[in-house]
């Protein structure tokens, strides 16, 4: 069976982005030469994530590995997974240069359980203590229910998911209108993909993307939470934030000094990111179960 068009296009797009992002000052790759340095994303997450020392962890959609290596520095036994071979090459180079204890695997999210051989030595699903996903991940996936199924397959009973990502309200907002208004113009719920064509990316760089086509989807919070519940996870944290770790709406945000950005004008009107933590329940034949996704 041929590979879906979205996967081919997005892999090529992210191969290009990886080259730009490694060279960009925004990813601060050179700062990892300091063994105490952590990415701003992981530094923000750490206060909610708790102690990860010794946890067998998989980082889905790890990109060039800056957050993966940061979690390794906090003590996680971590494997990063990404669909982009170029991203993984750069992640491995960074890990080798900094002597980070992190492994990396090339695979798209839906293929991750097979690629990681999840569940080969366990009779109740995958053997990971923690599945971690950071900013800018879910919008590249067409099916949030299938993603939740992957998370459940990867986790051992009692294991946990930690996710911080862009808020679907932000993704539904058009911030580039000539009249300066912030308007809801794109889908909030999971629908057909939005297909974009552009040679730029979200960091400071002179590099131009040559594989310019990309496919993206939004996923409403209700769709996301219901998918997690359907696949046997219980929410332990849900929080919405008025900040993001990048200038999500260029020219209209203020940098706060901790790697986070907030709308300059009335930041209370738009959530920019959210955090969800959840725990996989032990298997049981008892109790109410949600129906399968339609």
From TrEMBL:
One of its GO terms (molecular function) is methyltransferase activity. It comes from the Bacteria. Residues 59-161 form the Methyltransferase type domain. Keywords: Methyltransferase, Transferase. InterPro entries: Methyltransf_12 (IPR013217), SAM-dependent_MTases_sf (IPR029063). One of its GO terms (biological process) is methylation. Gene3D superfamilies: Vaccinia Virus protein VP39. It holds the Pfam family Methyltransf_12. This is SAM-dependent methyltransferase. It comes from Microlunatus parietis. The lineage of its organism: Bacteria, Bacillati, Actinomycetota, Actinomycetes, Propionibacteriales.
């Amino acid at each position: 069976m041929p590979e879906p068009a979205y996967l081919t296009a997005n892999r090529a797009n992210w191969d290009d982005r990886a080259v730009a992002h490694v060279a960009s000052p925004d990813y601060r790759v050179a700062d990892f030469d300091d063994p105490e340095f952590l990415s701003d994303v992981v530094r923000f997450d750490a206060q909610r994530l708790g102690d990860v020392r010794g946890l067998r962890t998989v980082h889905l959609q790890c990109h060039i590995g800056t957050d993966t290596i940061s979690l390794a520095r906090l003590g996680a036994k971590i494997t990063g997974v990404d669909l982009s071979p170029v991203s993984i090459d750069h992640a491995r180079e960074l890990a080798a240069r900094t002597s980070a204890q992190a492994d990396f695997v090339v695979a798209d999210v839906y293929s991750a359980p097979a690629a990681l051989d999840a569940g080969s030595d366990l009779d109740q699903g995958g053997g990971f203590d923690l599945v971690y996903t950071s900013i800018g991940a879910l919008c590249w996936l067409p099916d949030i229910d299938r993603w939740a199924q992957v998370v459940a397959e990867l986790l051992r009973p009692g294991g946990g998911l930690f996710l911080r990502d862009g808020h679907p309200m932000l993704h539904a907002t058009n911030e580039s209108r000539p009249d300066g208004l912030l308007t809801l113009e794109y889908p909030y719920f999971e629908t057909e993909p939005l297909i974009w064509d552009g040679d730029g990316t979200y960091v400071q760089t002179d590099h131009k993307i040559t594989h310019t086509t990309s496919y993206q989807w939004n996923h409403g919070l209700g769709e996301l939470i219901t998918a997690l519940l359907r696949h046997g996870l219980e929410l332990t944290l849900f929080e919405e934030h008025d900040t993001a770790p990048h200038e999500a709406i260029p020219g209209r945000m203020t940098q706060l000094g901790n790697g986070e950005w907030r709308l300059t004008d009335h930041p209370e009107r738009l959530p920019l990111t959210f955090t969800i933590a959840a725990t996989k329940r032990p298997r049981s034949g008892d109790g109410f179960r949600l129906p399968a996704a339609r």
